[in-house]
Amino acid sequence: MSLKIPAPLQRWRLLLGEAAQQSLGGLDGEIASADAALEWLYGRDPERARRGERSGGDGASQLTTPEWINDVHRLFPQEVIERLEQDAVERYGITEVVTNLDVLERLEPSESLLRAVLQTKHLMNPAVLAAARRIVAEVVRRIMEKLAAEVRQAFAGPRDRRRRSRVKAASNFDFARTVRASLARWDPQRRRLYIQDPVFASRSRRHVQRWELILLVDQSGSMVDSVIHSAVMAACLWNLPGMSTRLVAFDTEVVDLTRDVSDPVELLMKVQLGGGTDIAKAVAYAQGCIANPARSIVVLVSDFFEGRDAAELVRRVQALVQSGTQVLGLAALDSAATPAFDRETAARLVKVGAQVGAMTPGELAAWLAGKIRA
Questions:
Q1: VWFA domain: from which residue to which, for each copy (predicted)?
Q2: Which of 22, 91, 201, 307 maximizes the CB count within 10 A of its CB?
Q3: Topology (CATH) of 211-373
Q4: Coil/strand/helix, residue 245
């Protein structure tokens, strides 16, 4: 059970830490345990004393990481648990949270935990890695479930009102024809229209030449969210008719991961985060893969902080654009689409014909569908 809401003075004592104990009094029972759990984590903040916030005590009790996880899950509600676990890994670098098997098996799968697994999987022994893979699989399943629906909707053909559909999906619902077919069941006294058979329109299929999509994904540590969503996005696009998808990860080296696109879990477990960045080298690799520039799209997912020759990057992007290839630079491809990127390099790419922005995966699916239909 979660911690009961403490009295106002105890809440202030819990917030301010041991420095406020003389004024507000001590803590007992579960509230004291909650204070110890918060102190175990946030007591590591080197800026705390300067800010005048919580201050560490000199008590003898020191929690181990498994004990801390157990207390956190016992004392706090789910949204607080997720924040504490996220801060432990991302803010204070407590990698044992995801490299200890006993601890890992207690954690609730989340995107935050997935990020932590990808950043620390090289530290895991085989047993921990197997548990981590299960977490990756569950989080990927959740993301893919949502994203696959967005991709299907974006790439569905336009509604053909001349033909009815047996697929009773909300996106196919024909409101006007449904109302017309139901007018005989209008009740003027109750002012209600009773619908017996809702009408759903079919969708026309466009027969187009095959398009080639190349996703170039920056593996630098700051791009971990975009790496996750790029992998799932590629899997969703993999079996679309008329689309050939290639996924390429890069840092200072380029790795073609296309053979694993249909299995995003395996793909993510192969990604190596961190290291330098040679974006121009990745773009050069994409140039060598393109057979029909007029029907090719290169999506470069990167923060544009070029570690090598930025001028070479600009030249290669310009060559792609001039050949007829459409180039989209994404400073973020994730659920929030809030990027931090090199604006100067991005502006230079825009000047030579690339489009640059930040998108959610659903927005990218809609953008791709629009380009292909055009």
A1: 210-369
A2: 201
A3: Rossmann fold (3.40.50)
A4: strand
